[in-house]
Amino acid sequence: MDNPSEPKPGFKLSLQRLKVAERISQRRQLIQDFVGEFGFVPPVRTMSELLAAKGCVAGRQTISTDYRELGYAKPAESQVPLPIKVPASTRRQYARFAAVKDKAV
User: For residue 41, what are the contacts with CB-CB under 8 A and spacing of at least 6?
Assistant: First the structure.
């Protein structure tokens, strides 16, 4: 017979999910509090340090995901790549490297 004091098999898993969801919610609330306090969204590395000081350890990728979920991250299509100016000396070095590479083949 079933022992009524033992939890059902899926109960433990759902309890773990509930704890994870609670941690995520608390972390995102801390992030929102910091953003509200500072008036801007700090870089992910800075936010990681701020959260650690409050006892909430989270990696940069996790914080980046939280930023995206909270609407703080810019969509990729709105980000414009910066123009890269390659110095003439670097272009000459690359041209010499390409010429040597072509001769070797």
Answer: 35, 67, 72
pLDDT in tens, 1-15: 455 556 565 566 688
- List the domain range (segments joined by +) for residue 21: 9-76
Domain count along the chain? 1
Task: For residue 59, give every residue at least 6 positions away whose Cβ sits within 8 Å of its Cβ, in sequence order, or none.
Answer: 48
Is residue 55, in this structure, part of any structural domain at all?
Answer: yes
Top-confidence residue, 10 or 52: 52
Q: What's the number of CA atoms in the CB half-sphere (13 Å) around residue 57?
A: 0
**φ and ψ at residue 77, rounded to 5 degrees:** -70, -20
